[in-house]
Amino acid sequence: MAGGFAESGADLELVGISKRFPGFTAIEELDLTIPAGSFFALLGPSGCGKTTTLRLIAGLEEPTTGRIYLGGKDVTDTKTYRRPVNTVFQSYALFPHMSVIDNVAFGLRRRGIREARALAHEALKLVELDHVAARRPAQLSGGQQQRVALARAVVNRPALLLLDEPLGALDLKLRRQMQIELKVIQGDVGLTFLHVTHDQEEAMTMADTVAVMNKGRIEQMGAPEELYELPKTVFVANFLGQSNLFTGPVVSSGKDSIVVDIGGRKLEVPRERAQRHAGEVTIGVRPEKLQLHGAEPKAAAGTNVLGPGRVTDVSFSGVSTQYQIAIPGLGTVSLFAQNRDVGAVLREGAEVWVSWDVAHGFGVADDPADGPRFDPDDDTRSIAVQRREKLEAELEGA
Amino acid sequence: MAFGAFGGSPATTPASDAAPRRGGLIALFLLLPGAAYLSLFFLVPLVSLILTSFQAVDPNAFEIGKFVYAFQWQNYVDVVTTYWPHILRSFGYAALATVLALLFSYPLAYVIGVKLRRFPLLQALALTLVIAPFFISFLLRTLAWKQIFSDEGVVVTALQALSLLGPADHLTGTPFSVIFGLTYNFIPFMTLPIYTSLERLDLRYVEAGGDLYASPASTFLRVTLPLSLPGVVSGTLLTFIPASGDYINASRDFLGSTDTAMIGNVIEANFLQLQNYPAAAALSIVLMAVILVLVGAYVRRSGTEDLL
User: Which residues contact B116 (CB under 8 A, 6 or more apart)?
Assistant: First the structure.
C-alpha cells in the first residue's frame, strides 16, 4: 500500500477476533463488518475492549485468534507500518521535537511522497491551522493539538481512519464544535472512520452506525435512532440514555402485544418490540416518553398507566425537568418533562400518575440482574449531581 | 509530622501583596550558600591558577620551584609548542572513548529503560549491575585490567596463539589499552543519563511512528533517538570532559606508557615532579579553554537546549 493514496475508504471485516492478555480476556469472539465510507462508532464503558479492538486493527496488538480483512485483503499478519490505516490517538501523540508541519508531513515523507510539504499545508488548511505550521505541538492548545493529530492522520488518505476517543480531553463546547468538523471532514474525504468512544451522545450525533460493546462483546449494533428507540439488552437500555425497566411474568400473549404483570399492574408491550414473549421478561420505557398526571388518568386502550406514586426528587436542567417518582411495589421511575411552562410544575411529595403510549415500550432479552445498572459519567443525572456537589463545595468555601 | 512542614498548608501562605518583594529577598538569601560555595571553591582557585600560569622563574632563587608573579604570556606559547602532541592525543583518545562508550551504552540503556519496563525487578537489577563497579575503587579496577592485558595474561596469549598479535607485541602501554580503559571507566556515566531519557520515553510516540508508515529502523532514527538526545548529550559530556583530562588510564603505572601520555599526565608531571607550576597551570587553562569551546559548539550544534 505504501506510496499510493486510498481512492476511497475500504471495508473492514473482523472475523472471530479474540484477544487474551495474561489474566484476562479483552475481546471474545468478535465479528464485525464496517462498510466502506461509513462513520462507525464503537461505544462502550472503559475496559469493555473497544480500545483493544482499535489497536488490533491498527496492528499495535496481535489477536489471539481470528482474522482482520481490510478491503478484502487479510492484514492480520501485516506490520503496523505497512497497513493503510491511520490512528488519531487519544493522547494525540504528536512528536514533541518536530514542528506542526513536520508532524503532519511525517507519514507522507515515510512513504516517499514528493509534495509532502504542500499536501501537509493543505491538510492543515482543512483543520484551519495552517497559521501555526511552524510551531511546536507544546505551543498549541488542546483543541489545536487534536486538530493537528487529525490532519496528521487524514493527510495520508488511509483506507481506514481510527479515532481513539480523540475528543475526550476537550471541553464540552470545543467537543461539540470538533464533532461537527469531524463529520464534515469525513464527508469531504470519503474515508471509512472508526470512532471509539465512551460518550454515548458523541457516538449518536456523529456515527451512521453505532455498536455498543460490553465485556469484550458487541451487545447491539445499528443506526443511533434504532439503538435508542429499541434497545435489545439491559446494558444498551441503560448505557445509551436512561431507561425505566420492570421485570415480571408474561400473563397473556396476543397477536400484536404481550401483557406483563409488574407488581400487580398489567403493562402492555408491542410484540415486535419485545425480544422474549413468555416467562419472566424485562420491559422498559424511556423517561422522556412518560406523561405526568396530577390525577388518575382514565384507562384507555393503547396506554399503560402506573400510579399513584410520590415525587421524591425534582431536578431542573433548563430544557427539561427530571422527576424521580417512587411507586409503591415498583421502585423509582424516572421521567423527563419538557419545560413548556415556567419553572417546575410539581413539587417534591406530590401525588402523581405516569402513563405512556404502549407503542413506546420495549422488551429486552436479559434481566437487570445480568448486568448492573450502569450510569455513564456524562448522563444528565450525573451532571446534575456533579453540578450540585460543586455548588455546595463552593458555598461551603465562601 | 516533619513532612508536614513541606506540605505548604494554606495557613502559612504569606499575604499575596507582600509576596513578590519577599520572594525576591528569599530567593537571594537561598542563593547565598551556592554563591559562597562557587566563589570559594571555584572562583578563587581559578584566579590563583590564572595568576600562576603567568608566573616567571624567581631570578634570586637557586633551587627549582621558586616563582614570582609576572605577566609571562610566553608560558602559553611554550607549553603549546612543546606539548601539542599530548593535547591532540588527549582529545583524540577522549573522543574515541566517548564514541565507543556511546555505542556500548545506548543499546544497554535501551534494553534497561525500554525493554525491561514490564519487569521492574529485572530493571532494578540491571541498573544495580551498571552501578556495581563503583563499589570498587576505579584504581583497583584499572589495575585489574592491566593484569588481564599483561603479556602473561589470557588475552595476549590467546591473541598470540591466533597470530593476531606478534610474539613481541604487547597490549599494555598501547593506545588500545588506554582507550579501552577510558571507555570502560566511563560507561556508567554514559549509560545512566541515556537510561534516564529512555526510561521516560513515551512509547506512544513510537507507536505513532509505526502508525505513520515508519519502519522500526526509521522510527528509531526519527523518533526514539531525537527524543533521547538530551540523555545522549549529557552522557557524552560526562564522558568526554573528564576523559580528556584523565591521567590514570594513560599513566605508565596503569594502562599507558610514555608514548600514550595525555595532557593530564603532562600536567601531573609538571606539577609534582618538575615543579614547573606555571607550565602546569598554563596547560590546565589551555585544556579548560579547549573543552569549553568544544562543548559549547557541541551543545549548540545538537540543538537540544530546549529539550534539556
Answer: B122, B123, B126
Average predicted confidence (pLDDT) for chain A: 86
Which residue, among A27, A29, A31, has the nearest Cα to A12 in the 3D structure? A31
Residue position matching grid coordinates 499545508: A121
Q: CB–CB of A81 and B210 under 8 A?
A: yes
Q: Which residue of B has its CA nearest to A84?
A: B213
Q: Is A197's Cβ below 8 Å from some Cβ in B?
A: no
Least confident of A184-198, A226-240, B13-27: B13-27
When scoring A62, A78, A85, A95 by the number of chain B Cβ atoms within 10 A, the one with the most, hence best to mutate, is: A95
β-pairing, A12-21 with A65-70? antiparallel
Provide the residue type at B120 as one letter: P
Q: Name the closest residue on chain A to residue B208, using Cα atoms.
A: A93
Q: Which domains does chain A have, with CATH numbers?
A: 12-225 (3.40.50.300), 241-368 (2.40.50.140)
pLDDT digits (tens, 9 = 90+) for B166-199: 888 888 899 999 999 999 999 999 999 999 999 9
**Residue-range domains of chain B with CATH:** 75-302 (1.10.3720.10)
Nearest neighbour of A97 by CB, restricted to B204, B215, B307: B307
Interface touch A156/B202, C-beta < 8 Å: no
Mean pLDDT confidence for A233-237: 92
Question: Of the segments A17-31, A329-343, B127-141, which one has the largest average pLDDT value?
Answer: B127-141
Among partner residues B211, B214, B229, which is closest to A87 by beta-carbon distance? B211
Residue B117 C-alpha, separation from nearest chain A C-alpha, in angstroms: 17
Average pLDDT over residues A33-55: 89
Dihedral angle of Cα B233, B238, B239, B245, to the nearest 10 degrees: 130
Give pLDDT tens digits for B195-254: 999 999 999 999 999 999 999 999 999 999 999 999 999 999 999 999 999 999 999 889
* A5 close to B (CB below 8 A): no
Q: Which residue has the cell 588510564?
A: B249
Q: To the nearest whole angstrom, how far is the Cα of A81 from the nearest Cα of chain B? A: 4
Question: What does the pLDDT read at residue A343?
Answer: 56
The three three-digit cell numbers of residue B115, written as one number: 525493554
Please give the interface size between A and B, counted as residue pairs whose CB atoms are below 8 Å apart: 62
Residue B307 C-alpha, separation from nearest chain A C-alpha, in angstroms = 8
Helix/strand/coil for A40: strand
Contact A58 B211 (CB under 8 A): yes
Q: How does pLDDT run across B281-298, given as a tens digit for each residue?
A: 999 999 999 999 999 898
d(C-alpha A212, C-alpha B16), whole Å: 52
